[in-house]
Write a structure and sequence with these properties.
eight-stranded antiparallel sheet; 40 strands; Jelly Rolls; globular; mainly beta; 536 residues; 2 helices
Length: 536
Amino acid sequence: MCISDQKGSVLIAVAVTITLIAVLSAGVVSMNKTSIHSGIHANSFHKAQYVAESGIRFAKTSGATSGTYTLSNGDQFKLVISDCEVTSSAIIHEGTAFETIKKMSAALPSPDSPIPPVTNGLVSYWSFDDPCDQGRDDYGNNNGTINSATKEADGQVGHAMEFDANSEFVGVGDAPDLRITGELTLAAWVKETTQKTYGKIISRRNGSYFYFLGVDRGNPYGGIGNGSSYTVTGKKVSLPSDEWHHIAFSYHDGDDKMHIYYDSVLKETVSVMKILPATEGVDVSIGADSEGTAAFFRGIVDEVFVYNRALSLNEIRDIYNVPCVSELYYPLEGNANDQSGNGNDGIKHGDVAYVPSEVYVEDVLEQAASFDGSGDYILVSDSCLKYTGKITLMAWVKESNRKQYAKIISRRDGDSFCFLGIDNGIPYGGIGDDLLALIPVVTDKSAISAMPLDEWHHLAVTYSETDTVMNLYYDGVLTVATTMAETLPGQTVDLSIGADSRGTAAFFHGSIDEVYVYDKALTATDIQTYYNLTKP
């Protein structure tokens, strides 16, 4: 038997041994003969393929954990696949005096540990991506033990751990490097399914000595205690149920501040005068508090990080954005496919049609998407389009009829949004974050004239938190610059082309071509150059 790893699969080379038993007057004679060499390819997605000497004899089997196959000589071959192991058996001459069984098994290879985006100060990282060792610490040596009926679930990244009842948690134990005495950062992706009081994502607690990250009745929070006194954050952010969101808690002892981050945006800062003592004999728990005895979290947890320092805002974003994409590109050439290479294809709704375009791409006139202004839009599901600090939205547009607040590109959830649109012929862009209770900001529509109907024009909006300016470009020229205090929300919401609010409002009437979304603010030179290369 040999085992090799080929993109997560296992190859078992099986030598099926036939044992022939003959009853002779002189006694019982046994003779072993290797008659067939076969191979089995399998992986943890329950797919298998039997390969005989003469080549592939059976197609892949999907959705089953076992199967019985007939070999070329009439013998049978049975395959059983689990998440962790492949077991094979050959039943030779079943039902006869010569029947025998040959069994073999091999463990499926564990997936490679993910590479964390920030490793400076990293103590432990639990990705929960190994179905056979779910509590594995992918960076340090603090492997966890699954307690009760805690089970694997689909995660924000790969697999995750689901906690759906009291007493379910992952126990990590007490390790010297988890006895953090100064700065720390705790972070995780969470999807809360049922609100619980004081639910803990990760905690190390013994009485009033603790550090933790949790969700209390839908409000992310964190805290530290030194044994005699403690401080927790104010629970100012609301976490929607049944949605993935990233939460992080940090303690910075240089200025005695605690911070709560929600989807990579700083939401709360609290002053604290505490020092964490290096208390021994206190276990760390994931999904519960007080060493797995209280404050159980109800929901799904993924990508848990523990650092022994306070991460910066940019480092929090690095954790949040992996494996997020940095670019979307929709040329809209007869389909809504993403040609950036990131695979975020859109789906058209309504009567979206593809029509000839006057926009040049590599000196070729191709197609654009046409929207009738009444229910037509393209929707891109939110897989990982979580832009925060910087963004560019741009497209070629030809408006056929005036519409109020029509959107070219939009990601909106209430007053949390970023968009590029046309309001009664006037191009504009906007950013809002209702979690910070700030006034949404849109570009000054009085500073630009209405765009002529039935003409192709290029629009772009950029934003960078570095200079807190939102810029609107019209035909490659910076036209409106708006200074703002607003931040770009770290949304978990679908992107719409040709409409607003997930394709439910503000429909655009006209044609759209060459749609780009970047997680950076393109420069004026970049936008002018692109306009000159593609203009009709």
